């Protein structure tokens, strides 16, 4: 597999559409190069607004290539559910990390950085750095 | 001493009480939140009672960790990871003893409440479930019914507070005058504990 050692990215949003659209946008903006494993985990299992621990765990497992998984989350229960799953210990792949980053900008930075073959710490700090870009 | 049956009863009574009060919880959540607190907790505690019937854990710690796990995976809102962490951490603190004393429960519950504060970042006075749970744990050393009263008073005391955490914090000063839904459901949980103890 060409992406055998790339960091995986999981995007957790209250909305399935937001999660999958941001995933598509980040992958699109990353351009050519190796395909970073990116999985959306949006909304509840029944398709409503909210957070699903099952969808998050499945998304994280699907992008795990052994180089770690960076998770970005939007608000409230999305953030809290990821933290609670991390605290459980065995729900998410080893070396899964919740990244403190703005959702859209952080996702783009994370995917672009992961595509370069960077490790989990570098992906996390690139995503977090997106907070420092002020718009006015 | 409190055995696994006592803790199962606590969860069953909580589920019944959440069922009964779901509309009120959602109504409290409407002006300041996203109007789903009652239905979210209803779904969560329904899953808890179903799981407890299926898996029949035989220790107090086992009952609470299973219940917490169910809440984290089924609620879909912030109350899932928050209540899930409360029960799981309390359950883990109880270990695998077949029976625990009321004092041990009080200590374990304090560890659970501390874990909720760490997870959500709330402290007393932020108009959250913490404002019902902290006084309840403090009063648990006296009696279960004292804890129930303390939790109920703690929930009522959130009314004049400005919410500083979660969705309600976005409405700023307009959250003042509304009793916090999470503090209200926390008072139900503590009341169910007293009911399970026959107080």
From TrEMBL, chain A:
<dbReference type="Pfam" id="PF03610">
    <property type="entry name" value="EIIA-man"/>
</dbReference>
<dbReference type="InterPro" id="IPR036662">
    <property type="entry name" value="PTS_EIIA_man-typ_sf"/>
</dbReference>
<feature type="domain" description="PTS EIIA type-4">
    <location>
        <begin position="6"/>
        <end position="136"/>
    </location>
</feature>
<dbReference type="InterPro" id="IPR004701">
    <property type="entry name" value="PTS_EIIA_man-typ"/>
</dbReference>
<protein>
    <submittedName>
        <fullName>PTS fructose transporter subunit IIA</fullName>
    </submittedName>
</protein>
<keyword id="KW-0808">Transferase</keyword>
<dbReference type="InterPro" id="IPR039643">
    <property type="entry name" value="DhaM"/>
</dbReference>
From TrEMBL, chain B:
<dbReference type="InterPro" id="IPR050861">
    <property type="entry name" value="Dihydroxyacetone_Kinase"/>
</dbReference>
<dbReference type="InterPro" id="IPR012737">
    <property type="entry name" value="DhaK_L_YcgS"/>
</dbReference>
<dbReference type="InterPro" id="IPR004007">
    <property type="entry name" value="DhaL_dom"/>
</dbReference>
<dbReference type="Pfam" id="PF02734">
    <property type="entry name" value="Dak2"/>
</dbReference>
<dbReference type="GO" id="GO:0016301">
    <property type="term" value="F:kinase activity"/>
</dbReference>
<keyword id="KW-0418">Kinase</keyword>
<keyword id="KW-0808">Transferase</keyword>
<protein>
    <submittedName>
        <fullName>Dihydroxyacetone kinase subunit L</fullName>
    </submittedName>
</protein>
<dbReference type="InterPro" id="IPR036117">
    <property type="entry name" value="DhaL_dom_sf"/>
</dbReference>
<feature type="domain" description="DhaL">
    <location>
        <begin position="5"/>
        <end position="195"/>
    </location>
</feature>
